[in-house]
Amino acid sequence: MKSVYVNWGKIVMINMNSVWSIDDITPNGMLPIKDRDLFLIKLVHLNANISAGIRYLLVRDGLIDIKNNSASKLSFGQSYSFDEDALKSFISSYKFGPNKKKIPILRGDTIGGYVYRRKDIEADLQDKIEYYYKRAKVNIMKPEQDPRIPKIRNKGIQPRSKLFIFNVGQGDTILLELQGGELWLIDAYFWRKETYDSFKRWIKERYRTIKLTRLIISHFHYDHIRYAAKVVEDFEPKEVIVDNSYTHKTGAAQNLLNICDSRGILKVLDNSRQMRLGDDEIKLIRTNNFPGSHQLSPDPNEHAIALCIKTINSLALLSADIPGWLLESLVTNGGPASSKLPNKIYKVTHHCSLTGDHDPFLNEFLPTRAATSCALKNRYGFPHDPPRSKINRLTNYLHDITYTRPLGCPITYELV
Ligand SMILES: [Zn+2]
């Protein structure tokens, strides 16, 4: 028990004065563990800037309510403080995952007495987030047929759009270099300041500027927004595009919306939009109107923003963390990502988890290259198999995974 507590004790600032939100709950069937009823909870600190801002807990299923209607259970997007002393008697540890790291496990029958729901903090986060959204609603992104960059077909060497998928640990950060010199960033996760600084240096050396045209937030899970407020501050995008569905109430979400609001750059994407830059056609896709999807699902993955970039011979699908059953609508019946182009690049959904293992989607889309962003030895066991083996086969083993790359060397695709 003592060593267990030492392990738990390393979880700095888990005490009554600090507040943690549940950003994600992963069911047993998605985890590399045998115990039938354990769930993995991802806790993110209210202060997104502290270095130890992400912690994990294993919890028995009786303590969880994924529908968010029981006050005495742990739920998505809710905030809690922990009584460290009382917690000692309810906690032990469990080794699992590729590196057999210890992880605390709650063994109590109830959360009463050591976990405290922080409705005060939740209400405050909710008020602020709703306020920023309300102000941004006047800023719905308009349909745009962008005439700025004329077509350049058959005029000597053509500039090619490029896609860079960065090694940022267990999350997503993707850069699009588009025609006319536009730089778009899709999501902004870094696991510590050093990786963020090296990303910043990389951009500066390559482009001699760190100005972004757009920042697009696919959804508000922490592994996509942790550094988003910092990116807005440093990279000064002209627009930040977010979806208008249910948003997790976390400190990182609030910080991002706050800085965007103060600069007047927040734009809400209520429905899919299409735009053109030179020869490239770019679609921002909302899955909220697709069959089976619902706006208010407590899982932001189900109403995220996907991107589809079509060039003369290539199509790139950036699928955020959208489940495979929703991606199917993108590629069937003339959906926004259906195409017969010879090069098809697939940013594998949800870090190559089982949620993306959906044959009707994969067999219709038929990627020729694929990239998965996940951390080496991550606790979820990503990339899961299947879909890893299926994607490997479909792409003839041209499936790149970020953890194989050194820092500062993103996976790069030219969209020819
Ligand atoms: Zn993610």
Brief rundown of the structure:
This protein has helices spanning 2-9, 84-87, 119-136, 193-207, 222-225, 228-235, 251-263, 324-331, 359-365, 388-394, and strands spanning 20-26, 38-45, 54-60, 79-82, 91-96, 101-106, 115-117, 161-165, 174-177, 183-186, 214-216, 239-243, 266-269, 273-277, 280-286, 305-310, 314-318, 343-347, 369-372, 399-401, 411-415.
Shape: globular
Can you tell me the CATH class of the largest domain?
Alpha Beta
Helix and strand composition category: alpha/beta
Bound molecules: zinc ion
Question: What helical percentage do the residues reach?
Answer: 10-25%
Strand order of the largest sheet: 5-6-3-2-1-4-7
CATH architecture of the largest domain: 4-Layer Sandwich
Please state roughly what percent of the residues sit in beta strands, choosing from under 5%, 5-15%, 15-25%, 25-35%, 35-45% or over 45%: 25-35%
CATH topology grouping of the largest domain: Metallo-beta-lactamase, Chain A
How widely separated are the two ends? Answer: 58 Å
Biggest pleated sheet: 7 strands, mixed
Average predicted local confidence, pLDDT: 86
Number of helices, where a helix is a run of at least 4 consecutive DSSP H or I residues? 10
Please indicate the count of domains: 2
Tell me how many strands there are: 21
The residue ranges in which pLDDT falls below 50 over 5 or more consecutive positions are 1-14
Q: Assign the CATH superfamily of the largest domain.
A: Ribonuclease Z/Hydroxyacylglutathione hydrolase-like
